[in-house]
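User: My instructor asked us to take a sequence, write out its structure as tokens, and then describe one feature of it. I'm not sure where to start. Here is the sequence I was given:
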Amino acid sequence: MTAPDALHVLIDLAKRTSDTRLRALVVALGREKSETERLELLLDYRTKYRDRLEKQQREGITPAMLANYRQFLGRLDAALQQQEGVVAQRSGESSRARVDLNEAERKHLSYQTVSERRAAVARVSAERREQKQHDEMASRGRRARTGFARPTAR
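Assistant: Let's start with the prediction itself. The structure tokens for your sequence are:
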């Protein structure tokens, strides 16, 4: 396998890795969003439940009902705490996926840059060869016109 072929294989592999990591980031962000929405629903429910408790307290509430409200609020608080942990975990997964994607994209870009530089070097080399050939042809033409051509064997 020649160097340019190996480089193209590396570029292709880096591109696939980058694409895979992009999909992983999209999944991680979707999970984070879903868990964040779930947390927001729990917070909203807790606020409404607390408002309902305050209304009941103004209208009069039995000690048993108050105990039930407080017990349920305790469970809601525990669920909120657990959900905050899940959101933090999903956020960490999204951050790691973002870092992984950035790393894969940097690698892909570096291989791409190497390929472009090699192509530029090859192009300059080809232009120099072509210019040298033109110069030699022009030099031969001048020698032929001025009579400095080599004598031919008879």
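For the description part of your assignment, you could build on this observation: The chain has one domain: 3-146. Try explaining in your own words what that tells you about the chain.
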